[in-house]
Structure formats: structure tokens, C-alpha cells
Design brief:
Strand content: 15-25%
Radius of gyration: 21 Å
Distance between the termini: 36 Å
Structural class: alpha/beta
Helix content: 25-40%
Number of helices: 16
Shape: globular
Length: about 400
């Protein structure tokens, strides 16, 4: 239950049965594995598919938000009549890939697994870390945090979903881009998997997925197939750019051509397919950015650069400055942001119910800010990104938080 009082423009996560973090328990129930973590999705979102299900495939299209899905609904015309489940769920909060994927690979909310943002403070290593590369936020080779003693495979505070399924005798597999197949983040998420397959293109993704389903026909399994290009394009051009829609249409076309039209009856048997996104995106034009460089009075209250990300930054403040900083934010930018003490954000349930990960309170800083509309809060150097980063996520607006949820029986 979310206790925070929020403006109507915000869409809070539904950890009680309507979010990404509820998907693992849903898969476990479908496959007859013991439950762990958060409860499964609400019954109408999966029960119609449950009878006799022994194999589950989750296709995760990064940044396939509900608004993008609705705009490109015609791409799904041939699929929707086949679906037994059609609905809308929420991402987790913050609505960022590292937090969402960690929830999908654990079954816990961000405050429970501990990966609560793209940039996190590591006090013992005296560094602000970037969690996609597991390196310093200022650059350096990927995996640099490992040199400082941070172990990716033990970083999350809860077991991996692959480990949970393996203990129940159900193999789990992942297919994702070859460039991230053995990244520190993948090592963090892929604990307990039977195998990891690197792919080159959307066509390759569905060919490899088809071959995996064929070679395991008749056996129980879980497959997580991940495609990132919608997110990449939406970041570069903004989520409303025609290339975003073109990529969605391409992915769904390849799904039909290389998987659904060619899969044998034996590989289809007892198999369920779900399609969703990990979050959406919003347009974040440079003119709506709050550049801390232009506000030296507020910048003086900060102990360090913000953690989190420009759509939901976590602020670390100089000793005794928390109330002054909160008052400054509320007075100067009420139309651009919502700010609250990080402790209040944590107890409100926005980042998930208790029990929380041991380090999570330190990772949220003193104040949590989440941005309204298309606003961002950035440092001077980050302003240079706006020409190549026109779409963003991480906040709590509907465009970022709402994602489609489609379910199919492949043997139907």
C-alpha cells in the first residue's frame, strides 16, 4: 500500500499485484514452483492462461510504455485476437532499467533488492557508481567497482529468480544482446540460469528463441528474452519520434515471422508467452532542465552531485541543510518537481514494502526528488547530453510508469 499523497499526474507502482515486480511470482505459480518475494499479478492478468502451463516465455521490450503501445496498436492487430490476457501494469519506482530488471530477476521491489537507481553512492569506495557499467559515474572501464571490492553476484540483497526456479527443478534461460551478455549487471541478474544466449538483431532474437523452444520441447522452462532498441532510439530522438514506432513494428513483425509462424506444435505445447515493457519514456527538452550550475545558492547546500538520475535524483546535503534545501525546492520549482525526505519516501512504500535491503536508506540520500512533466534536474556537464538524450525515464509520470501486459497460449 502506497501511503504518500501524490499529484494526480503521477502513477505510483502497484506492488500489490499490478507491477513488474509481481511477474516472477506469477511465473512461479504458472510453473508450480514455490512462491517468494511479492505476490503474483492480479488473477485476471494470468489465470486464463494457467491450465496445464509448463513453459513460460517473457518478451521484455525495453521502453515499450503504454503510451507508445497505444500509438502503435496497429502493429499488434494480428496478435491481439490470439491473446487471452490484455492489460496495463506499472513499472517499479524509480522507473529505470536497472531497478526494473532487478525486480524481474528477483521478484522483489527496488527497496527490497537494493538497486534503487542508475547512480548509487558507495561510501566505502568513496565513489558514485554507475550501475549499468558497474564503474565510476565519471567514466573508467566497465566493472571498475569490482576492483574496489564490490561483488556483482552478491550485490542484490535477495536471491535471484533463476536460483529460485533452479531449486524447484525448473531451468531458466535468457537471451539478450551479446554486448551485455557478461556485463557486471548481467552477472548480478543471471544467477542460477541454465544458459545465456547473446543475440545480434531482433530477427536473431526470435530465431534463437525458436530454436531454444524446439530443442526443449516437452520440458518445463522459463525464458526471459530482452530487446533494447526501442529504448535506445527513444533516448536518442525522444519517444514520439517516428523511428520509435518503426522499431516497435519491426520487433512485432519479427516475432510473428520468425517465432509464431514457424514454431512446431511440439514446441508450442503447454507454452505461455507474455509481452511487456520495463517502463516508458517522456520527452525531456533542454529548456525544461534545471541546471544546478545556474543555481549556486542551492548548489551550496549539496554535499555532492545527485545520485539516482535526472528524472528522480537523490540529494546528499551538507550537515543541517535538509530543511533549507527542501524549502528551496518547494519555493522555486513547485511546477517542476515533487521533493520529500528520503526517509519519508522509503516508509511511504513508493520503492516497495518492507523488509528493505540493509543499504537502501543510505543509497537514497537525504532528499528524494521526482520530476513533473518533462523536467529534469542535472549538473552542468550533463547538459551536454541533451542533444543525444531527448527521451528519458526514471520518474513517476504515466508515460514512464505504465506498460502493456499481453498474454498468449501458444498451443491455443
Amino acid at each position: 500500500m502506497i501511503s504518500a499523497r501524490l499529484p494526480e499526474e503521477f502513477t505510483p507502482p502497484d506492488y500489490d499485484g499490478g507491477s513488474l515486480a509481481n511477474i516472477p511470482a506469477t511465473v512461479a505459480d504458472l510453473l508450480g514452483a514455490p512462491a517468494s518475494g511479492l505476490p503474483p499479478l492480479h488473477d485476471p492478468l494470468w489465470r486464463p492462461l494457467a491450465s496445464g502451463a509448463r513453459r513460460v516465455v517473457l518478451l521484455l521490450i525495453d521502453s515499450l510504455g503504454w503510451q507508445i503501445y497505444q500509438r502503435e496498436l496497429s502493429a499488434f492487430d494480428d496478435l491481439l485476437p490470439l491473446s487471452a490476457v490484455q492489460g496495463k501494469i506499472t513499472s517499479v519506482f524509480p522507473s529505470t532499467t536497472v531497478a526494473a530488471l532487478s525486480s524481474l530477476w528477483t521478484g522483489y521491489a527496488p527497496a527490497q533488492h537494493g538497486l534503487v537507481g542508475l547512480r548509487l553512492l558507495f561510501p566505502e569506495q568513496a565513489v558514485l557508481g554507475q550501475m549499468l557499467s558497474f564503474s565510476s559515474n565519471f567514466g573508467g572501464r566497465p566493472g571498475l567497482l569490482e576492483d574496489g571490492g564490490v561483488d556483482p553476484e552478491s550485490f542484490l540483497a535477495v536471491p535471484g529468480f533463476g536460483q529460485h526456479l533452479a531449486a524447484a527443478g525448473i531451468p531458466a534461460y535468457t537471451l539478450k544482446g551479446r554486448d551485455i551478455l557478461y556485463s557486471p549487471l548481467s552477472d548480478m541478474l543471471d544467477r542460477g540460469l541454465r544458459s545465456r544466449t547473446g543475440i545480434h538483431s531482433s530477427a536473431d532474437l526470435f530465431v534463437q528463441l525458436r530454436e531454444l523452444l524446439e530443442t526443449t520441447a516437452g520440458s518445463p522452462l522459463y525464458i526471459h528474452a530482452y530487446w533494447p532498441a526501442v529504448d535506445t532510439i527513444a533516448h536518442a530522438y525522444g519517444p514520439n519520434h517516428p523511428s520509435v514506432g518503426a522499431e516497435v513494428r519491426t520487433v512485432i513483425s519479427q516475432l510473428q515471422l520468425e517465432l509464431l509462424n514457424r514454431l512446431s506444435p511440439a514446441a508450442r505445447q503447454d507454452t505461455v508467452l507474455f509481452i511487456t515493457g520495463d517502463h516508458g519514456q517522456v520527452e525531456t527538452p533542454a529548456e525544461l532542465a534545471i541546471n544546478l550550475k545556474d543555481h549556486p545558492q542551492f548548489k551550496e547546500l549539496l554535499l555532492m552531485r545527485p545520485a539516482g538520475e535526472p528524472r528522480t535524483p537523490y540529494l546528499y546535503l551538507r550537515q543541517g541543510c535538509a530543511q533549507t534545501a527542501l524549502a528551496y525546492l518547494e519555493e522555486h520549482w513547485p511546477e517542476a518537481l515533487l521533493a520529500m525526505p528520503s526517509a519519508a519516501a522509503l516508509t511511504s512504500g513508493l520503492l516497495g514494502p518492507t523488509p528493505h535491503a540493509p543499504e537502501v536508506s543510505r543509497r537514497l540520500g537525504d532528499l528524494m526528488v521526482t520530476m513533473r512533466g518533462g523536467h529534469t534536474l542535472v549538473t552542468g556537464p550533463e547538459m551536454a547530453e541533451f542533444n543525444s538524450m531527448r527521451g528519458r525515464h526514471g520518474g513517476m509520470t504515466a508515460g514512464e510508469m505504465e506498460v502493456p501486459w499481453l498474454g498468449f497460449r501458444l498451443d491455443g
